């Protein structure tokens, strides 16, 4: 068991702060799930904007609720962490949808779980984490595709990482890691203390950041909060920085400005450190049931005026200093007291009876209120629009009233009894120029947008003329593509019949040059699906019904084919649940069942734990818990089913394999067997998807290469890269290992009357059609020119029926069309 030492700090505007907003350390309480007993968690929410005092209170309240939710929830650690992240996301979305907020709260999220010697990382958004170890160090900063962090959408994507820890290992959690932070630069200093790692991070920083340094050491499960006892003033110059890192102040500070001038700093000799000791001086430690709640959570929220005046903090009983030993002293804890914090986590001080420390002033806040300015400009814009819409009436009225005004303001006028007062004349002198300027600005803005649109359309048209006079095919393609870019710019200012017509001409020319077949699509469902749904897999049954897998919930949606479109079957059940003592988690892949069976099952799906789910129409699903392979299940990526065997692809580095399991009348009661007989390809982890046709298995890698396995009963023969065939000029066939400029992320086969293999090109939102002999037939792309409903994002799934209906999914949007 380990003790945990934590040190949060941040750098903003060349100043170091030793308190981090949106940070919580959680340990087990009395009312917890048994599987969470020895867990220690760290939650870090990093807002994308600066939060005020009230908003920081809200975030910490939500983190505390998430902490309680985690420790009360049973299940595998990855499931519980994901559910906890979704729980926090729901809290933020409910807050953002309330009417009394000015700006939403959203940001990146880091969730670290420490269990015995294991560390589990969960990221949402684009945070970074580092594990610094003597044996093997890791950098976890893979961006979550399509993720905007928490607080925006109910569909959130998480990335999971894992590392084994040993005593002395250090962990860094950061919201925006500087580019200079790499495993190489952070491990240059062999010393293992948090103090030296902090100095390394400050030395290598080139931007603002917020980070938490953690270190585990052999202990009894206690948590130690570190603070600065003696601290260094740092220079922005790298040379001065290395020199000044040797000097330390004798005062206790929470805000340490980085030294920006050339003022001399007294140097002191740096003490020699024992490599086996943490470079801290321990004043006190906190046991699991004594660890204080995070900042702002000890306050009574009903006294809002007190919260704004003074906010409590974690009492730091552990000091981060240049001492060489770890000492414990319960008496020292009473020497420290908190001083009023006047401006969030950026100000405040900790004092003791022996030291007189003055609070540092926070940099001045900007005088201009940006939120108020934006509201004023929006209101002014609405005023201009209203004035313009009634410009004719206003002009007529101004003309009539101006004539009256001139006559009334004329001293020689006979109608002296109705002349305006001096005050009225003064205000009219101000109001008239304002109205004239407002009308002029509105007319200018409107005409400016039209002018910009026409300008880009004209440039696109000039490129079309140039392309038509070009004889080189490659150059013509490039010029037409440039013309489309100009049209994209033009349509940012609106669409017109001219721009639509020109786009149609350019697309037709490019399609002829590139061999693209365009098809018209229509909405699959009138009104569309819920925007929270994210379709990532689709299959079609023999009756032309469509089955779509929602990535967020892991359930299958059935859409019944009607005369003109599709209707959702709300009674169809196929997703996570407890089915006769077999717990099925979110499905990761689905396949259609085309053979007759006693269950009348039409869809087979699998979850990450290796549980199969057989789904039927008008009937409850049947769950089957598969026998574990020798190495267990790692990361199940895809399945393929040909009616008599199911093939399961595991792409985890440790358990990578491709298993075959006989159906045995859809019982699947045998043990999974590897098709490779022990000689497992190393690049199996790079497989994106797989599909099967009779005894031919096709696996497409993320590099674009196509692997083919003949899976007969006698023996299995696999070709690592079978290649793609292209017929040139109707005669010569050429083979290429990779189709350039594409990203084949999904593959499907179709049964007779037109047996084929299709690949989804995620990069270009296209589908490539090949024969089973792997000869290119056509490239299929949708035609949305002039369409009322258009996709809002990239393509996420597709499927093709044997009868020539092709379906496209763009997140929650579904379309279908007919192949020529």
Any low-confidence stretches, pLDDT <50, length ≥5? Answer: 230-319, 321-367
CATH class descriptor name of the largest domain = Alpha Beta
Task: Label the structural class.
Answer: alpha+beta
Intertermini distance: 66 Å
> What is the third-level CATH name, the topology of the largest domain?
Phosphatase 2c, domain 1
Quick summary:
The protein contains eleven helices and 46 strands. It has 820 residues and is an alpha+beta fold.
What does this 3D model show about the protein?
This protein has about 800 residues and is α+β, with helices and mostly antiparallel strands. The chain folds into 3 domains: about 1-265 and about 270-350, PPM-type phosphatase domain (Phosphatase 2c, domain 1, 4-Layer Sandwich), CATH 3.60.40.10; about 385-505, no CATH class; about 520-820, Neuraminidase, CATH 2.120.10. The protein has 11 helices and 46 strands. Strands 1, 2, 7, 8, 10, 11, 12, 13, 14 and 15 form a 10-stranded mixed β-sheet that branches. Helix 9 (about 420-470) runs antiparallel to helix 10 (about 475-490). The relative contact order is 0.06.
């Amino acid at each position: 068991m380990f003790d945990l030492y934590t040190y949060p700090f941040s750098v903003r505007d060349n100043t170091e702060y030793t308190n981090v907003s949106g940070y919580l350390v959680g340990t087990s309480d009395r009312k917890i799930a048994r599987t969470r007993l020895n867990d220690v968690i760290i939650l870090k929410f990093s807002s994308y904007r600066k939060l005020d005092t009230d908003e920081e209170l809200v975030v910490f309240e939500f983190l505390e609720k998430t902490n309680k939710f985690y420790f009360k929830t049973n299940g595998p650690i990855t499931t519980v962490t994901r559910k906890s992240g979704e729980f926090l996301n729901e809290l933020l979305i409910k807050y953002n949808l309330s009417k009394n907020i000015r700006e939403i709260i959203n940001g990146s999220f880091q969730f670290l779980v420490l269990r015995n010697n294991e560390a589990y990382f969960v990221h949402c958004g684009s945070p970074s984490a580092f594990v610094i170890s003597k044996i093997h160090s890791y950098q976890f900063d893979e961006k979550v595709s399509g993720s905007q962090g928490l607080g925006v959408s109910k569909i959130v994507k998480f990335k999971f990482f894992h590392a084994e820890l040993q005593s002395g290992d250090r962990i860094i959690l950061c919201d925006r890691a500087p580019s200079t932070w790499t495993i190489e630069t952070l491990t240059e200093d062999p010393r293992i203390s948090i103090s030296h790692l902090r100095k390394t991070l400050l030395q290598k920083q080139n931007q603002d950041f917020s980070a938490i340094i953690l270190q585990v050491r052999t202990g009894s499960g206690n948590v130690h909060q570190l603070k600065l006892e003696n601290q260094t003033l740092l220079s922005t110059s790298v040379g001065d920085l290395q020199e000044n890192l040797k000097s330390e102040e004798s005062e206790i500070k929470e805000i340490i400005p980085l030294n920006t001038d050339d003022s001399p700093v007294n140097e002191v000799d740096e003490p020699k450190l024992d490599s086996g000791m943490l470079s801290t001086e321990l004043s006190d430690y906190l046991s699991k049931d004594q660890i204080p709640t995070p900042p702002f959570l000890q306050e009574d929220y009903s006294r809002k005026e007190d919260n704004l005046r003074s906010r409590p903090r974690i009492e730091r009983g552990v000091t981060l200093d240049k001492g060489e030993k770890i000492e414990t002293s319960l008496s020292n804890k009473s020497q420290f007291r908190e001083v009023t914090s006047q401006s969030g986590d950026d100000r405040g001080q900790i004092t003791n009876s022996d030291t007189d420390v003055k609070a540092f002033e926070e940099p001045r806040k900007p005088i201009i209120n940006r939120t108020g300015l934006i509201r004023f400009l929006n209101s002014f814009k609405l005023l201009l629009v209203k004035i313009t819409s009634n410009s004719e009436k206003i002009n007529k009225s101004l003309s009539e009233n101006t004539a009256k005004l001139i006559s009334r303001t004329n001293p020689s006028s006979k109608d002296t009894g109705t002349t305006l007062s001096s005050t009225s004349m003064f205000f009219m002198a101000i109001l008239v120029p304002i109205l004239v300027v407002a009308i002029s600005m509105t007319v200018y803005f409107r005409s400016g947008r039209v002018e910009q649109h026409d300008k880009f359309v004209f440039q696109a048209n000039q490129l079309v003329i140039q392309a038509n006079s070009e004889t080189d095919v490659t150059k013509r393609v490039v010029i037409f593509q440039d013309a489309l870019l100009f049209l994209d710019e033009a349509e940012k200012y609106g669409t017109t019949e001219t721009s639509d017509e020109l786009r149609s001409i350019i697309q037709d020319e490019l399609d002829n040059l590139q061999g693209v077949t365009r098809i018209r699509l229509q909405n699959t469902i009138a009104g569309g699906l819920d925007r929270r749904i994210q379709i990532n897999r689709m299959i079609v049954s023999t009756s032309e019904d469509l089955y779509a897998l929602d990535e967020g919930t892991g359930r299958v949606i059935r859409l019944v084919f009607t005369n003109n479109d599709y209707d959702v079957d709300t009674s169809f059940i196929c997703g996570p649940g407890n089915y006769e003592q077999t717990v099925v988690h979110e499905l990761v892949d689905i396949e259609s069942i085309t053979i007759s069976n006693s269950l009348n099952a039409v869809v087979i799906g699998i979850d990450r734990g290796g549980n199969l789910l057989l789904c039927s129409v008008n009937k409850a699903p049947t769950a089957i818990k598969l026998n574990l392979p020798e190495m267990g299940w790692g990361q199940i990526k895809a399945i393929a089913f040909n009616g008599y065997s199911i093939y399961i692809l595991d792409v985890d580095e440790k358990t990578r394999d491709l298993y075959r399991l006989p159906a045995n009348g859809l019982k699947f009661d045998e043990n999974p067997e590897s098709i490779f007989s022990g000689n497992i390809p190393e690049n199996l982890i790079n497989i994106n998807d797989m599909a099967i046709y009779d005894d031919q298995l096709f696996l497409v890698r993320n590099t674009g290469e196509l692997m083919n396995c003949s899976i007969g009963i006698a023996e299995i023969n696999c070709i690592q890269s079978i290649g793609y065939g292209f017929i040139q000029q109707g005669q010569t066939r050429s083979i290429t290992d990779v189709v350039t400029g594409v990203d084949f992320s999904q593959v499907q086969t179709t049964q007779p009357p037109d047996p084929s293999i299709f690949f989804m090109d995620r990069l270009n939102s296209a589908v490539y059609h090949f024969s089973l002999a792997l000869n290119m037939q056509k490239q299929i792309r949708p035609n949305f020119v002039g369409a009322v409903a258009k996709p809002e994002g990239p393509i996420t799934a597709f499927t093709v029926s044997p009868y020539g209906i092709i379906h496209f999914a763009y997140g929650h949007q579904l379309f279908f069309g007919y192949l020529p």
